Amino acid sequence: MSVPCVAVDRERGERVRSRLADADALDGDHEIAVEDDTIYIPVSGRDRVPADLADRIVERAAAARDRPTTPAEILGYEPSLERLGDIVIVDEDDDERAREIAEAVMASDVPCGTVLNRASPIEGELRVRRWDVLAGDGTETVHREYGHEFALDVAAVYFSPRLATERHRVVEQVEPGESAIDMFAGVGPYAVPMGTRGADVVACDLNERAVEFLRENAERNGVADAVTAVAGDVRDLATGPGSHADTADRLVMNLPHSADEFLDTAVALAGDDCVVHYYDIQHEDDPFGPGRRAIETAAGDAYAVEVETERVVRSYAPHEYNVCLDVRLTRVDG
């Protein structure tokens, strides 16, 4: 049977397969094939393939894949599940239904050590939530993303696997030798890959447990020398002994509910030419305007502000978007 496949060089195969998986574009019904130095990855639809890979789509005969037993086959319906390392996350208000799903997950061929159900919304200054352990034991795992490994404890830190594609988009812009500051670094999903790209990274977070994982993850991925992990308030990076004021070539501000409260600090940390990745949550009527105006106000007369990219990352709530503005700050002489 002929199906659409993305054809790429063999050495790029795993990287491209991960990107297609993040885009929900993989065709699980057909086998990946290798011929000479080319790997052919079946996709579920041309419209789901990232734009920069669209010219790599070819029609090709592909063997049918023996499908493993899935939770849906056991349950008779498709449950809503999210994978994070060897943890499967359920989001069910009905405890009986949640436990039914957990039993099916553990009985299926899904690689899984623990099944969790969300027991609270994200809460508090550290943005963590409570969990019900439905099967297995513990809330720690190792998550793999674009060739990197991140140890974490979902009960102690904030981490969203749904942002993998967005993180990769930002990291791909990093040049060797840059001075980068991740202002709300968590366990390092921006900071560690930026270090791999050759940047000198300062990564700060208020959550001390997250910073412990960040240091572990820098070691785990071989960039401990490139990533300086700091536990504390990011405002302190711009003042006092050891200040990083006026040094950053790139700033990541992934704290979408309140990043605007730290824009004065971002401006203080920015060097003469600095790209700021500013995350925000706004109404669909004007998703980018409030962030742009807040950045312009904080920059004042000190910097020229150029918005290079306005991007909707994902829907956050009805009529609300999680967005990113890539903004270049260029210091004004005089």
Automatic annotation (TrEMBL):
Q: List GO terms (cellular component aspect).
A: cytoplasm
For the keyword Secreted, the answer is no
Q: Which domain of life is it from?
A: Archaea
Query: Which SUPFAM superfamilies does the record cross-reference, listed alphabetically?
Result: S-adenosyl-L-methionine-dependent methyltransferases (SSF53335)
Q: Does the keyword Transferase apply?
A: yes
Q: Which UniProt keywords apply?
A: Cytoplasm, Methyltransferase, S-adenosyl-L-methionine, Transferase, tRNA processing
Name its GO BP terms in alphabetical order. Answer: tRNA N1-guanine methylation
The entry lists its GO molecular-function terms as: tRNA methyltransferase activity
Q: Where in this chain does the record put each SAM-dependent methyltransferase TRM5/TYW2-type domain? A: 81-331
Q: Which InterPro entries match?
A: MeTrfase_TRM5/TYW2, SAM-dependent_MTases_sf, TRM5-TYW2-like_MTfase, TRM5/TYW2-like_N, Trm5a/b_N
Q: What is this protein called?
A: SAM-dependent methyltransferase TRM5/TYW2-type domain-containing protein
> Origin organism of this chain?
Halorubrum californiense DSM 19288
